[in-house]
Design goal:
Elements lengths: L6 E6 L6 H10 L5 E6 L4 H10 L4 E3 L14 E6 L2 E6 L9 H11 L2 E5 L6 E5 L4 E5 L12 E8 L2 E8 L12
Parallel strand pairs: 1-2, 2-3, 5-6, 6-8
Antiparallel strand pairs: 1-9, 4-5, 7-8, 9-10
Helix pairs in contact: 1-2
Amino acid sequence: MSAQAASCVGIISDTHGYLNKIDEILAATADWPIELWLHAGDYGDDARYMAKQTSVPVLAVRGNNDRQRPLEPREQLIPFKDTYIYMTHGDQFLPYNRIQEVLSLGESMGATLCIAGHSHHHSQYSDGHGLFINPGSPALPRDKSGGTFAVATYEDGFFTGRFYYLKEQPWEPPVIK
């Protein structure tokens, strides 16, 4: 059996109406091998805007500040290649165990990539079975990063994550083998 070609997923969250940040990210990544963009909430309107600006499919979940109809689902289990991606905004989980709870819930549904936003802090964690990514916020970071988004690369049955910092451009695209 031959290995599948690597695939990339762009991940963004907590844009809070700062459409210029979405434009900046989409322009800089336009020629990258991203097959899917995921928006982990706040705001759904931003995800719908994003979908109109790119030919790449965009999926989103509802955040705690999303009130405009149509409302996105609170969570999604997304088929991707031969695995699943679980995405939620994350506000329904307590901060002290959010990563473990999201990862455990996603893995229980067969996901190997689990995504949550809400905290505006970029982070990733792997328990050896699945990968958790919080892409942070490109617009209103609370972690002194200057703004972030992430790209997850899926290759040989595993996801790896990489953060991109808005203050550190130009960005190098993911390396696809």
